[in-house]
Amino acid sequence: MVVIHYTEMLGKEAALERLCDPDAKVSAHYLIGEDGEVIRLVPEARRAWHGGVAYWRGVRDVNSASIGIELDHPGHLNGYRHFSDAQFDALVPLLARIVREHDVPRANVVGHSDIAPARKIDPGELFPWGRLAQYGLCLPTPAKLERLDPFTNDAAFYLALERFGYDITDGIKAVEAFQRRWRPERIDGVIDGQVRAILFQLLLDRDRGAAR
User: In whole angstroms, how far apart are CA 155 and each of 101, 161, 162?
Assistant: First the structure.
């Protein structure tokens, strides 16, 4: 899988210093500056410490099964804002090559908040997943919802959310992570008809082979 993060630091140099500091015990395979510079920090065949305690689709040692890409960005703590065009334009070819060479399914191109919903919210609601999906590099938000409010109760929704891939240990945080990725305009942790319908469609598309 590929996990996309933001650095939540003030500038590329500060992020680079921390990612290269052994005492920090954090690393990633790539850092992409807001100016579009791509810096390789860890060979793709090696394990990087970018995911922390995480889970996705049955995988608990995410660091050993993923490539981590850090985006130079102030994050929510330092004035959250849109990601730069230069950074996005650098991400697309890098991610396209990784996905092609490692045969990464679109469903396994995820954000840090997807694999660690109780701890992380990056890359956040402003990350342009829709633009990335136009290149076929991640799953798009379903354009058509075939069933409205398909789950009869919250327990059924949580089971479906776990089936899709999320850790549901902290239910509210898991719902917020799902919303952050698939319905970023409203993140409230509430299981409403819209999020139920989106999840159902994602699972339906996957069962049909359309959401690999």
Answer: 38, 10, 11
Q: Which two tokens stand for residue 1?
A: 């899988």
DSSP string for 39-97: EE-S-TTS--S-S-S--BTTBS-GGGG-EEEEE---TGGG---PPPHHHHHHHHHHHHH
- Which of 28-37, 164-173, 182-191, 198-207 is predicted with the least confidence, judged by mean pLDDT? 198-207
Residues with catalytic roles: 70
Q: In sequence order, which residues have a C-beta less than 8 Å from that of residue 22 and are 6 or more positions away?
A: none
What is the average pLDDT score of the chain?
A: 96
Q: Residue 109: CA atoms inside 13 Å, Cβ hemisphere, count?
A: 28
So what's the pLDDT on residue 136?
Answer: 96
* Amino acid type, 112: H
Length of the chain: 212
Place of tokens 């996957």: 206
Model confidence at 151, pLDDT cuts 50, 70, 90, reads: confident
Is residue 59 helix, strand or coil?
strand
> How many CB atoms are located within 10 Å of the residue 103 CB?
7
